[in-house]
């Protein structure tokens, strides 16, 4: 469901301008996505199509008025369909959704089986020095989230490089962190 | 004299993926973004529509990824980069590409829309309206950067959590 703000803007701006801008952005994004998936750079696409790099950059800005022929040529070069019909898209996403739902269901069952979950805390400091920190209570239900409050009384400076890894209790080799109620 | 600035949440700029915030001097009624829109919506209506569509599309569909913003030192600008297109394709309406809206990208979900102007020259410093707004955006961006270090604000999803000691100011021209 689109946000109210988005629907309001679509209402305000003439359909013609929207099509001009958005039609090309969608194609450009599709090309971007395929290039990323294949680990290619825009320069590779230029080489494959025998075009200049600047022309490819122009396409990728999302402002180029693509013809169907150009889109098909790009699709051929990338060995993919850049334009897919709505019905096949819906079918594809339905299957994907079903698959993801299955995975979520299995993961939930696994989480429920765990009696105790500990965490190993890996933290580094920008000052490249280790220091003891106190780990607060979990902010949310441990089975859903790994978000903890971290207290560093000695050094008040911001640390954004704390990594928290959930591990099974039996595999926990490091000292159990001190929890503050 | 320096005037205090508020960070404003605007319902009409709250999209599914990105919430855009605007800036307002406390002694004024309109936000800087609204003043920018009002100033250019007459003569530059197509540019404003073009910008609004980009803002909406990034906010609703894409998220605030780097590729959609022009880097401007510690700030950013919209519309997205089109340097190449301007060099080679003159059929594109160059007027649309001459407008700049400066913004500060705080995360993939949070962007502050500052203000902008018309870029009449290749170098921003030669476009008076644009340069002034760029300086404004850069000043706010660096103040936000340092106040974040001092933990005066933080991000939680699309929300900006502001503490009581959070202040940003700017010398009005």
Question: Main beta sheet of chain A: strand number and arrangement?
Answer: 3 strands, mixed
Strand content of chain A: 5-15%
Oligomer: heterodimer
Q: What pattern of helices and strands is seen along the backbone of chain A?
A: HHHHHHEEEEE
Low-confidence stretches of chain A: 124-130, 139-145, 167-181
Secondary-structure content class of chain A: alpha+beta
The helix/strand order of chain B is: EEHHEEHHEEHEEE
Biggest interface and which pair forms it?
A-B, 28 and 31 residues
Total number of helices of chain A: 6
Q: What's the gyration radius of chain B in Å?
A: 16 Å
* Uncertain spans of chain B: 83-92
Briefly say what this structure is.
The complex is a heterodimer of chains A (181) and B (173). Chain A is α+β, with helices and mostly antiparallel strands and 181 residues long.
Overview of the molecule:
The complex is a heterodimer of chains A (181) and B (173). With 181 residues, chain A is of the alpha+beta class. In chain A, 48% of the residues lie in helices and 14% in strands. Chain A has six helices and five strands. Chain B contains five helices and nine strands. Chain B has a seven-stranded mixed sheet with strand order 3-4-5-6-2-1-9. Chain B has one domain. Chain B has 173 residues and is of the alpha+beta class. Chain B is 35% helix and 32% strand. At the A-B interface, helix 1, helix 2 and helix 4 of A face strand 1, helix 2 and helix 3 of B.
């Amino acid at each position: 469901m689109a946000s109210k703000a988005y629907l309001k803007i679509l209402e305000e701006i003439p359909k013609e301008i929207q099509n001009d801008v958005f039609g090309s952005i969608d194609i450009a994004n599709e090309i971007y996505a395929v290039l990323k998936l294949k680990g290619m750079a825009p320069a590779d696409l230029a080489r494959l199509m025998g075009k200049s790099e600047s022309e490819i950059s122009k396409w990728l800005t999302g402002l180029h008025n693509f013809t169907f022929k150009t889109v098909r040529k790009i699709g051929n070069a990338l060995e993919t369909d850049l334009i897919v019909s709505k019905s096949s898209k819906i079918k594809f996403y339905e299957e994907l959704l079903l698959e993801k739902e299955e995975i979520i269901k299995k993961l939930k069952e696994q989480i429920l089986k765990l009696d105790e979950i500990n965490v190993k805390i890996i933290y580094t400091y920008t000052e490249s020095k280790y220091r003891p920190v106190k780990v607060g209570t979990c902010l949310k239900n441990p089975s859903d989230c790994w978000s903890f409050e971290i207290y560093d009384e000695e050094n008040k400076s911001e640390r954004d490089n704390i990594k928290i890894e959930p591990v099974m209790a039996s595999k926990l080799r490091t000292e159990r962190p001190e929890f503050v109620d | 004299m320096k005037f205090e600035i508020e960070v404003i949440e605007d319902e009409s700029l709250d999209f599914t993926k990105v919430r855009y915030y605007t800036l307002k001097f406390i002694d004024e009624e309109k936000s800087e973004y609204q003043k920018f829109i009002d100033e250019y919506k007459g003569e530059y209506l197509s540019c404003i529509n073009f910008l609004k569509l980009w803002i909406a599309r990034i906010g609703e569909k894409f998220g605030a990824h780097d590729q959609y913003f022009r880097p401007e030192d510690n700030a950013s600008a919209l519309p997205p980069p089109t340097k190449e297109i301007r060099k080679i394709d003159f059929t594109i309406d160059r007027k649309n590409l001459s407008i700049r809206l400066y913004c500060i990208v705080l995360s993939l979900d949070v962007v502050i829309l500052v203000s902008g102007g018309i870029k009449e020259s290749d170098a921003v410093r030669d476009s008076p309206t644009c340069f002034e707004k760029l300086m404004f955006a850069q000043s706010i961006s660096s103040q936000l950067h340092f106040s974040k270090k001092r933990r005066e604000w933080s991000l939680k999803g699309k929300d900006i959590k502001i503490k009581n000691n959070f202040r940003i100011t700017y010398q009005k021209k």
